[in-house]
Each structure stands twice: as structure tokens, then as C-alpha cells.
Amino acid sequence: MDELFANRTFFHVVEQGSFSAAARKMNISVTSAARNVSGLEDKLGVRLLNRTTRQQSLTEVGQMYYDQMTRILHEIDLTKRDAQAYQAGIQGLLKVHLRHSVGSRVILPALPAFLRDHPEITLDVELTDERADLVAEGVDVAVWLGSLEDSSMIARRIDDGRRVICASPAYLEKFGAPASIQALADHNCLVYTARNYANTWNFEKNGENESVQVHGNLRTSSFPVLMEGALKGVGIALLQESSIRSALQSGDLLPVLEGHNVSPTEADIAVYVVYPHRHQISAASRAFIDFLIQLFRRTD
Q: What are phi and psi of 2, to 5 degrees?
């Protein structure tokens, strides 16, 4: 019995929901699929599936085995892909997860240049604020906000997450710029309601801390909505500098209260590039990580 093939058969039976569907997926006979799973059970000395005439379900030990084997099979596939990429050079498929804020405003506009420099790399990009299981989902590189404790991942800080109070020229022309921190309470401020954010903005200047509770007619947990509101002159926003750097450079957004530093939230909001902890990182992953580090490096 090919033990690896038997494990893959078991995985597909669970994923597809039946032996017949797994057999079609693997282009083998139903009899062969059933024989592989039975052989695996005999080898392990446990029953992995409860079978009836119409369906099958995982036993308790089968669920445990499936959870562990899923990670192992993904790791095997990633290792094979890394080896092939290493042998062939900087090429192949690279699966990437990007945080919405920095992904849409900073990374996506720069991707054409990266692909021009590395024409043999194919990028599979997803914008998501969820921290997926990178190994289980086969993700090579992710960009997250905040540090992590998972020792199976490597996280490298690429931006400190500095935030800026800003508004569009149209808003400032119509309503004027706030002359002080407390004056923000009299302005229409856009409130970000994502986790770890609040409508109390904290500042520091010359060692002195000051806070103000802000209000406005737009509240959202979506960064694109917050950004669009600021650009269209709805109100004053507190935004991550790396995400609005191009808007600041073009003058589409203007900083206000520049003498005050925005104090960090309780959570770590720095930007990290994250990737699975493996002995050999692929050449394509290394090229993309280097690209991100350079992209977030400040030139001011």
C-alpha cells in the first residue's frame, strides 16, 4: 500500500463527502478508493470512518487524524513546491493574503512593477482582514496588522503603524483646520469602528498626553469606506500613514495638528509580513518579501 496515496484518498473522501466523489476527484475507481482507506485503517489499527449504506462520518479518532493529516499533506505539497521553485529559480505560483488597508492602497498599485521584474512568478492574491491558517490554506506570504504568538509562523515588522490626522483640502477650505486637540470635538470626524479602535483619539506632545472624544456622521469598520470619506471631504480621519502616503504626497489629503503624535492603541498596529516557518523558503517567497520590505521603507 502506498501510504501517502492512502492518506490523500482519506483526505479527499472527507473533503468530497463520499467515496465516489473522491474517486472522481482522484481519477481512480470507487473500489480503489475504498481499498486505500480500509488499508490505512488496518495499518493504523483504528476505524477512521463510520460507514452506512448512504453516507460516512468521521469517528472521534478519525477527526483528530484528519485535522493533523490535513496540515501534514499541505506541508508536503508546500515543500515539494519550494523544492521545485528552488531548482527552477524565481518562478511558480505564489499565494498571498493582504490586509485590506495596506493591500489596496500600498501593495496592489506596486504589483505590476514586481511582476515585470519577476515574469515567471504567478501571484494568487486575496484581500482579507482575517488571519487564516497559512499552512492549512497553502498561503506563502501574508501581510497582517499586529504581531502574533503562533510559533509556526515567522513575522517580520515592515512598518511601525504610525497614524496621521488628515482631511481633504475641500473639507479644510470649508470648515478650517482644528487649532487644537480639543477643537476636534467641534469637527465632523470619521470614526473607525474596527476592533481595537474607538472614538477617543489620544495624542502626545513634548511628553504630555491629551485625549479627545470625537464624533461624526460616518462610522465604519471598513477601511475603504473610511478612506473614501476622507478623500471626498466628509470629515477628518485618523489613518495609517503607510496607507495614505501617496494621497499625502499628491495633496489629496493634508495632515492636521502635525505637532502632535498620535498615541498607539492598546493593540499592536504595526504592519508585519508573515510566512510559515519552514527550513527552506522558496526563492519566489523571498523575492516577494524583499519587495514588501523595500515598498514600506520610508523615503521621507
A: -80, 105
